[in-house]
Design a protein that fits this description.
Elements lengths: L3 H8 L3 H9 L7 E2 L5 E2 L2 H15 L4 H9 L3 H33 L12 H10 L4 H14 L1 H10 L4 H12 L2 H7 L2 H11 L11 H9 L10 E4 L5 H9 L4 E5 L2 H13 L6 E5 L12 E7 L7 H9 L2 E14 L6 H10 L4 E2 H10 L2 E8 L2 H18 L8 H18 L4 E10 L1
Parallel strand pairs: 3-4, 3-6, 4-5, 6-7, 7-8
Antiparallel strand pairs: 1-2, 7-10, 9-10
Helix pairs in contact: 1-2, 7-8, 7-9, 11-19, 12-13, 18-19
């Protein structure tokens, strides 16, 4: 008999993986001991051996369960043949990448690296006989095979960081999302429009804002504060209630800024909250302008790591940044949830990785905490009501309709798998 720990060690798996297999019914121990600990038999070990072999072949847990429960020997051959077809397609992808590189190298008039930019690169592709569709496919394959190198390559072309984030997002997504994001400006306009007049654009509350603000100790009496990706200004209003500073509220979408102005007027703060339309990845301020940079649930648009690096230049020495970011809170994420968020936000990771990124940029981490789950419940309840009221305004096949359907799916998966992801607030200091 094997305990969970011994079974995990034997097969090089984590204990939580075995517990998850038990939870989904893929591998349930033959018996439990009187003390309730799981005990695995030799038969269980043989079954796990098959599971590991199938996983190494790249089969999904769903397919593995199907094979283990099947008495039809031909079913294994069918599933393996399907996997072989998938591998063949991946090999073709690599061969296509290889051929494109060969075609580019065969060009005798490649420009010097100092002259390289996005337009030059597109011209090279066109002159090499590579279509726009093939170029898009090249980006998708590059991102999937080597995301870090793809990001470095895009920076080599001097593409703005926000645009790099958009390119990498649709490069990481399947065809359904690619079609949705093929015209990113139209997509973002539809996205912003759907979120107009939502009370909060994302999960959060006054208590979380207050908790994060209190970790920014030793701020001057009248600090310079900017709220980046301010939405309708709820966070800026909360910040104004916590100190006497004037706050610059920045967003790229004009209707949101109009909401900020209305909300600030209602709160009696029109003279202290200044709105400005600006791109968070192309700010016009002088270096070292702010004592505190605030951003709740917005940094993902340009990428958490990129935001840390770029915004730091606008921070005064010993100044603070407070950011909330979507993170995985558990391991062994259900496959349908992982699949959805791999499409929606492929760069989401756990908090430990975000803290590594914070320290890598030279910040001192002052604290971090998870926003309460009740804030997500409240946000999704409100958002669901809002999109249901909007649904009739968008015909099937439009960006708006697809965004609403994706949002409904997001809410459905959250309720089905509560606690697997959330917002983590990070408070750091420029040292």
């Amino acid at each position: 008999m094997y305990t969970v720990g011994k079974m995990a060690k034997r097969y090089g798996l984590s204990r939580s993986t075995l517990l998850y297999y038990d939870y989904i019914g893929l591998l349930r121990p033959i018996q439990h001991a009187k003390n309730k600990y799981r005990q695995y038999s030799d038969e269980d070990a043989e079954k796990l051996d098959k599971i590991c072999a199938y996983r190494e072949a790249g089969l999904s847990l769903k397919n593995i369960a199907q094979l283990l429960n099947s008495k039809n020997k031909s079913e294994l051959a069918t599933v393996l043949e399907q996997r072989l077809d998938e591998l063949s397609e991946e090999m073709i992808t690599l061969q296509n990448q290889q051929q494109i590189v060969v075609d580019l190298l065969n060009k005798s008039d490649l420009p010097d690296t100092c002259a390289m930019n996005k337009d030059t690169w597109k011209t090279i592709f066109q002159e090499a006989g590579i279509s726009t569709k093939e170029m898009r496919r090249w980006h998708v394959d590059f991102e999937r095979i080597s995301p870090d190198k793809h990001a470095r390559f895009l920076r080599f072309l001097n593409i703005p960081e926000e645009e790099i984030g958009i390119i990498r997002a649709w490069s990481s997504a399947p065809q359904k999302i690619l079609k949705l994001k093929k015209a990113s400006e139209d997509f973002m306009t539809s996205f912003f429009h759907i979120y107009e007049n939502v009370d909060r654009k994302g999960p959060g509350d006054y208590q979380s804002t207050q908790r994060a603000f209190k970790l920014c100790k030793n701020l001057p009496d009248n600090p310079s504060i900017i709220d980046i990706g301010c939405g309708n200004g709820r966070n800026a209003i909360d910040l104004a209630a916590l100190n006497n500073a004037n706050i610059i509220a920045v967003d790229i979408y004009e209707p949101y800024l109009q909401e900020v102005q209305r909300n600030a007027k209602t709160a009696g703060l029109s003279d202290r909250i200044i709105t400005q339309k600006a791109d968070m990845a192309d700010l016009c301020y002088h270096k070292e302008s702010f004592d505190l940079i605030w951003s709740e649930g917005a940094a993902y648009i340009m990428g958490f790591d990129v935001a840390l690096k770029y915004w730091k230049s606008f921070l005064k020495p010993n100044g603070y940044i407070a950011i909330s970011e979507a993170v995985w809170l558990k391991q062994d994420i259900p496959e349908e949830l992982l699949s959805f968020w791999t499409e929606a936000y492929p760069m989401m990771r756990d908090s430990k990785e975000n803290i590594k990124a914070i320290k890598k940029e030279g910040y001192k981490i002052l604290g971090n905490f998870t926003i309460p789950q009740c804030d997500w419940d409240s946000f999704y309840d409100s958002l669901e009501t809002h999109i249901n009221n909007l649904a009739t305004q968008y015909t099937k096949g439009t960006d708006g309709h697809m965004i609403i359907e994706l949002t409904r799916r997001e809410i459905e998966l959250y309720r089905k798998h509560k606690g697997y992801y959330g917002y983590e607030f990070y408070i750091m200091q420029n040292i």
